[in-house]
Amino acid sequence: MLDSPFALSCFAVNPANFDFHSHSSVSDGLLSPAEVGQRAAANGVDCWALTDHDDLGGLLEARATAEASGMVFVPGVEISIEWRQTPIHIVGLGFDPTATALNAGLAELRHGRLARARRMGDALAAIGIPGVYDGALTYVTNPSLISRAHFARYLVSIGIARETSEVFQHYLTPGKPGYVDHRWATLADAVGWIRDGGGVAVVAHPGRYRMSGAEMRHFLDDFKALGGQGIEVTCGSHSPDHVLHFARLARHYAFHASRGSDFHGPAESYIDLGRLPALPQDLKPIWRLLC
Ligand code: AMP
Ligand code: MN
Ligand code: MN
Ligand code: MN
């Protein structure tokens, strides 16, 4: 880690506004890594992580932008996993982007997204909506990173729904006609790759998973046992009740707390870069592990 060009120097001051969850056009975000970084800086972010899905391709550009804008940069990624049949996202922060196991694991994850996308197109054609695979591809900037978000954008463009969230609700979530299962990484893989690269593993937007309280605790037990260290407490998809709930779980598990907008684009995201409530004061902020 220390030899990497991405190694962090200790923060000279505590970040006042860190945002450790954001996407660019390297995955399913709408802006380039440089544009995301410029927007973060303009919004007052002083410490920023780009966390594209399953791909590290934006990190060099993001780092250069952060340096030019006076932000501390943290390399990030959001890894797609499945735990007991539930799709979950694990954010990795502060790793060496040249780490071998992480790069090989992510390449494997990207492989197969196109085949899954074709099956999604076939499934939608079967209910009378043809041409969606080709349509979704016109929204894709990185062909190995086609995601449901690209399908949702295309389906909105042809008037199937007014907003992408409606498309997800009716077509693209488990049990709905355009949803196709995919073999993602395991929890052990994702946490292992991140730690092997010298980074810190964080549970992304825990309020979004359909799990009972007991399942969530079981998942967090497994995550902790594998070496996971952080959990998002304030994030773009958390209500005030979620914040209170996951702050309690962060204390219970002695996890460090993360904060991230999950920004995908100006018109698409609930919360803009850096425009999040502060973390509850007694929690240990995740950046303390990244010095
Ligand atoms: P995938 O990795 O192909 O399964 O696609 C997941 C992506 O779809 C997420 O990263 C979000 O960008 C988007 N997404 C998932 N669920 C929703 C939802 N309910 N509303 C809007 N976007 C969503
Ligand atoms: Mn996404
Ligand atoms: Mn996610
Ligand atoms: Mn995300």
List the bound ligands: adenosine monophosphate, manganese (II) ion
Helical fraction: 25-40%
Q: Please name the CATH topology of the largest domain.
A: TIM Barrel
Low-confidence stretches: none
Instruction: Indicate the proportion of strand residues.
Output: 5-15%
Question: Compute the gyration radius: what is it?
Answer: 18 Å
The CATH homologous superfamily of the largest domain is named Metal-dependent hydrolases
Task: Report on this structure.
The protein is of the alpha/beta class. The chain folds into 2 domains: 18-106 and 183-289, Metal-dependent hydrolases (TIM Barrel, Alpha-Beta Barrel), CATH 3.20.20.140; 109-172, Orthogonal Bundle (DNA polymerase, domain 1), CATH 1.10.150.650. It is built from 10 helices and 7 strands. It has helices at 33-42, 59-69, 100-110, 113-126, 132-137, 148-157, 164-172, 187-196, 213-225, 240-253, and strands at 18-19, 47-50, 72-83, 86-93, 200-203, 230-235, 256-260. It is globular. The N and C termini lie close together (11 Å). The structure holds adenosine monophosphate (AMP) and manganese (II) ion (3 copies).
Helix and strand topology:
Layout: E1 18-19, H1 33-42, E2 47-50, H2 59-69, E3 72-83, E4 86-93, H3 100-110, H4 113-126, H5 132-137, H6 148-157, H7 164-172, H8 187-196, E5 200-203, H9 213-225, E6 230-235, H10 240-253, E7 256-260
Parallel strand pairs: 1-2, 2-3, 5-6, 6-7
Antiparallel strand pairs: 3-4, 4-5
This protein binds adenosine monophosphate (AMP) and manganese (II) ion (3 copies).
